[in-house]
Amino acid sequence: MREIQPAEVGTMPIVDVRGQQEWDAGHAVGAIHIPMSEVVARLDEVPDGAAVICRSGARSGQVVAYLEQQGRDAANVAGGTLQWAAEGRPMVGAVL
């Protein structure tokens, strides 16, 4: 599984796989919300080359492993949204 640091995301599309309440509390600017439980059904909505993010990196790591099994290019954002926010990356709202 490929893992990248928040600063390495650059222009990659970001897919946030957290639940609705977590998303509503705060998320990366420009992120696409596809909860982990919906990834299989919404696979065609996941852009190739996506940076996948959750709260801490565990769920997104599982999603990246699944995407790679499907032949998709994806990377896990190390430290998740907590690390993203801690580094002062652009956010909508705040992470609780």
TrEMBL record:
<dbReference type="InterPro" id="IPR050229">
    <property type="entry name" value="GlpE_sulfurtransferase"/>
</dbReference>
<dbReference type="InterPro" id="IPR036873">
    <property type="entry name" value="Rhodanese-like_dom_sf"/>
</dbReference>
<dbReference type="Pfam" id="PF00581">
    <property type="entry name" value="Rhodanese"/>
</dbReference>
<feature type="domain" description="Rhodanese">
    <location>
        <begin position="8"/>
        <end position="93"/>
    </location>
</feature>
<dbReference type="GO" id="GO:0016740">
    <property type="term" value="F:transferase activity"/>
</dbReference>
<keyword id="KW-0808">Transferase</keyword>
<dbReference type="InterPro" id="IPR001763">
    <property type="entry name" value="Rhodanese-like_dom"/>
</dbReference>
<protein>
    <submittedName>
        <fullName>Rhodanese-related sulfurtransferase</fullName>
    </submittedName>
</protein>
